[in-house]
Amino acid sequence: MRYLPHTESEIREMLAAVGVPALDDLFASIPEPLRLTRPLALPPALAEPELRDHVGRLAAANRVPGRDLLSFLGAGLYRHSVPAVVGALASRGEFLTAYTPYQAEVSQGTLQAIFEFQTAIAELLGTAVANASMYDGPTALAEAALMGLRLQKDEAGKVAVSRGLHPQYREVLATYLGAERLVEVPCVDGVTDPAALGAALGACKVVLVQQPNWYGCLEEVTSLATTTHGAGGLLVVATAEPTAFGLLEPPGKQGADIVCGEGQPLGLPLSLGGPGLGLFGCRQEYVRAMPGRLVGQTVDSRGQRGFVLTLATREQHIRREKATSNICTNQGLCALMVTIYLSLLGPTGLRQLAELNLAASLYLREQLPRYPGLALAFDRPVFNELTLRLPGRNAAQVRDALLDQGLLAGHPLTAPGEEDLLLVHVSELHRREELDRLLQALAQG
Fold it and tell me: Mean per-residue pLDDT for 70-90?
């Protein structure tokens, strides 16, 4: 009864309150053939010491990047050095006990932290305003697409989606909007084809691209914005690696109307794929159409600075038909960690970090001609991720073979015609000898 604390009398009392005689009646809506009528096929229960040993053996079977594997895997989630003080500060009891600010004005410290987060993210993305964060990068992009359609007064319309957008982001878009509403714009030499985009703008008034894109290449955002705006459209730019904007001009400064993406690289551990943190910023005139919530700064009756939920356009706060999203939480603890991380680095530190990442990718690129059987797939500027071509070889098979050498060489692409492409991520965590080891292993693989 450790995990099922209700007594038999309490269960009878609850059943009487809901008006059913037995627990099985609670499942009457489930068809009989779909109900499990036998006990679950579970092994016998373990005593706590035995359970600890069992879980420990399972954990020891994991191959941890940075400890057991030399990893060059990115593809949407990125491993960077995170100062220990980030976890130390975020683990303080005042922060851990605050799930989400439902009675926000009582939690002034939480609101101030969110306000600082918004300020940092707006500056990073180059937008006039940023919200109090969202679930993760893919859902933030889906919400951005819906917001763009609302602004265009075409909520049932189609959106133009660059082939350079992360495949998982595209899958989430298809779930939100329906695959038939996504018009794919192909890439040429690793970036969005401007001619194909111009043709798609006849049927689409919202354009979705990624910077840096799925292939690691840098899109010409200013040119894409000019093309999109010339046809009366809105440009949404997503990012999975916001660290790049420590060095690159952010999309909001290059003409993007909405900028969104994944905040995990900014001080969050990979944690087996989650949780993530959605970033979201836009132009000032679009703020009332923005999903999620926004914390504002004000002055109280005594003239002291205070913070409030200025706009909270989610269905828990206002009439459902007026809500701009059904986002339930703003990932407050993750947003706090990102805020601490960005505060520690500051603009200068973030730029230095970005320069280290760029230097690693440039070194890899410069060394490629020394290794037969390896080539750069796209001759385009990159940040810290680039696509390598392994002519005549299957990239997935090469990646799997190198795992036995303790090397996770990257992410093999699987789309038709891309089977010989390997997406490789490098960062400030990689030393030159490790980059040389990667190239040698791939050349011999």
Answer: 96
